[in-house]
Structures are given as C-alpha cells and as structure tokens.
Design goal:
Largest interface: A-B, 40 and 40 residues
InterPro entries (chains A, B): CDO_1 (IPR010300), RmlC-like_jellyroll (IPR014710), RmlC_Cupin_sf (IPR011051)
Keywords (chains A, B): Dioxygenase, Iron, Metal-binding, Oxidoreductase
Bound molecules: fe (iii) ion, magnesium ion
CATH topology of chain A: Jelly Rolls
Number of domains of chain A: 1
Structural class of chain A: alpha+beta
GO molecular function, one term (chains A, B): oxidoreductase activity, acting on single donors with incorporation of molecular oxygen, incorporation of two atoms of oxygen
CATH architecture of chain A: Sandwich
Strand content of chain A: 25-35%
Order of helices and strands of chain A: HHEEEEEEEEEEEEH
Helix content of chain A: 10-25%
Shape of chain A: globular
Oligomer: homodimer
Organism (chains A, B): Polynucleobacter hirudinilacicola
Protein name (chains A, B): Cysteine dioxygenase
Chain lengths: ~210, ~210
C-alpha cells in the first residue's frame, strides 16, 4: 500500500486526520465514530509501523507511543502482545478505540454492580485483524484483554481521548471488585518521526 | 532546573506553548515575538535535550527533529554542529528562530540584488548561549552559519513556521548568486517522547 519513499505516510495521514477531527469536534460520540473510520483505514495495511514499535517484551505487554496531541486531546499507541500475555482487569476513564493490526486479541468486558462486585458483561470476544472496538465510561470501560494467539506476537493500535500514558485509572481485584489506581506510562523514550517527507519532496525538485 | 522525574518537561512546555500560540495567532510578527519569548525560556537550561539529539556527525551538521506540528504550523529542531562545520549560503522561505543552547555560532547575512548577485548584509555576528536571532523572507532570509568553536560541538535550537525538513528552499552559489533548490530532511527516524508523565503522576497516586 505504502509509497516506498514514505513508508510511514498512513500513520502521518491518520495523525493529521485525528488532529483536524479534535480541532473541529468535541462530542464524544462523533469522535468515536469518525475516529473509528480513520482507524479502519490505518489498519488496512501494516507496513507503516516502525520496527522498534513492534518489539515484544518477554514478560510484559508493551505500549509504544506513536503520537500524542500536544493539547492532550488524543494519543495513539502500538500495543504489542507477546505470546500468552494478558492485562489485569482495568478501565481507561476516557474513550478509547482498539484496532487489530496483526494477530488477534481476546477480550472480556465487565460491569461493576452498585455493591462494587464485578460481573461479566456479555461473553468473551475475539478481535481479528482489521476489526475495531470501542471502550469508555459511557459505553463500557472495564475489561480484561489478552493475546489470543499462544505462540505469536499480536499488535493492536489504540487511540484514546487523552494522553493515555498519563491518565490516572484503575485495575480491579477480580474477586472483590476493589479498584486500585494506576498510570501506564509508555515503553519507549522515543516516538517515530512521522514528518520526514524529504525523499518525496526531493524527488519533485526541478 | 528540571524535575528529575520529568527531565524533558521544558521541551514539552515549549511545544504546548507554541501549539497554543499557532492556534491563536497567524500574524508572522506576533509568532516571531511570542515564539522568541518561549524559546528564550527553553534555552535557559539545557539538561532537557535527549542525548540522541546531541550527537554530531563527523562530516555533516545534524538536524534532529524534536517536534513537528501535525498541521504544519511549526517545527522544532536540534541543530548539532561538529567542530569546523558550516552550512552553504541558504534561505528558509518561512520564518525561523535560532536559539543558542550550547557553544556558539557564527553567522553572515546576505541580500540578493535585482541582478541576482549576493552582497553581505551587515557584518559577521556571533550568537552566544541564551541568545536568539530570527530569519525569514520579510526580515532577511539568506545567510551562512558555522560553528564558532573550532574544537567543540555547538548546538542551537531552531523553530520554524512550517515542517522545515520538507520545505523546498535554496542554496546559493557564492560567486554568481545562482539559487539551487534543496530540501533538508531530518537526521533521525525517531523523535523524543515528550509525553511520558507517568513518573510524576505515579508519585501522586493515593
Ligand atoms: Fe484496555
Ligand atoms: Fe539557516
Ligand atoms: Mg546554562
């Protein structure tokens, strides 16, 4: 799909599209529906993801920041699952979109009863390459997610309505439903350079 | 100066300040004057610059992208001079600010006569740590710059009113004034992650 001179173009176009979207829209339902369309286009190909954002860790799932909006209106993350890796039960406290890029994810949603107890919300689901799901306080925010492939890396691209690595959110004790604050951070001190368009521009010089 | 948990904070604050500025202002004179104030604050300390954006090349001056606005309204670059390195005579075709972070730069401005010939505009200047100068089509856009220190690396932080690495601009033949198109690109495929505030947030968890 990608221009050989400009492999990262699909990610750059996505970031530009999302930046225009959050500049024009503030209603969450619109951000989710229009963001989903943009994400659907992004995950149609996967050769745009830089190598360093695809590397699994032997023990922990990795969260490579791909882009954060400077005004904190959205962020984009490459979520890399090693074989058998699984999150705790957790929430996000903001809207989020999950688009499957490579492999498969297994997910189970939960609801918290007024008593504080967690109960499953629907049955376990499988997210396949090219598919998208949404989470958030108004549409169901608590879930547990794992790599659905036991012997391979899976990668999903996540978009959130804030700088997700800095959001105070919660993990939940599966037995008691007791929440515990956490903040995820990011797995790398560097992000991809989306903006070097010089090869393309150079090819057009007279 | 910087918080030990969040070394990169001054650069993040600068990027947020510039993003707010370009969201509110379009007049170039204001962008230059307010951008200069923000840049002055940024270059008061230098411990925020990530190591990989300080590395000189034995032969060529390096241009490490620190941040590009997704809508192309500004970009920030770490310009790293090895000993003795020097640009060709060149222009920018947009406004730019140069803030001296480490070491010193020597600059000579030029004007192009209607005949096409280049003549010096003022005498050679020295830019010292903490000082700022501006370039641009309306305020003098043609110059040659070099490391003013013969045996050390110098580093200046540049801010431009576009994605500078992708701008079609010109070098000039010093004898004839003949312009030649070029595009500079960037020296790294990665940029710093300015957005991992998790250490700070984690320290505040209850
Ligand atoms: Fe999640
Ligand atoms: Fe210059
Ligand atoms: Mg100092």
């Amino acid at each position: 799909m990608s221009n050989q001179l400009d492999t990262i173009a699909p990610l750059r176009e996505f970031v530009i599209g999302m930046t225009n979207l959050v500049s024009q829209e503030t209603e969450q339902a619109h951000l989710i529906s229009k963001g989903s369309e943009l994400l659907k286009t992004l995950i149609q190909s996967d050769d745009w993801l830089p190598e360093f954002c695809t590397v699994p860790h032997p023990e922990f799932y990795q969260q490579y920041l791909l882009h954060a909006d400077p005004l904190g209106r959205f962020s984009v993350v490459s979520f890399v699952w090693g074989p058998g890796q699984k999150t705790p039960i957790h929430d996000h406290c903001i809207w989020g979109l999950i688009g499957m890029l490579r492999g498969m994810e297994k997910g189970q949603r939960y609801q918290q009863l007024p008593s504080g107890e967690l109960v499953t919300d629907g049955s376990e689901t499988i997210l396949r390459q090219g598919e998208i799901e949404a989470v958030g306080p108004t549409i169901g925010d608590i879930h547990v997610v794992s790599n659905a492939i036991s012997d391979k890396t899976s990668i999903s691209i996540h978009v959130y309505g804030a700088n997700i690595g800095a959001v105070k959110r919660h993990t939940y004790d599966p037995l008691t439903g007791q929440p515990k604050q956490f903040v995820s951070g990011y797995s790398s001190k560097q992000v991809p350079n989306l903006w070097d368009r010089s090869a393309e521009v150079r090819a057009s010089l007279t």
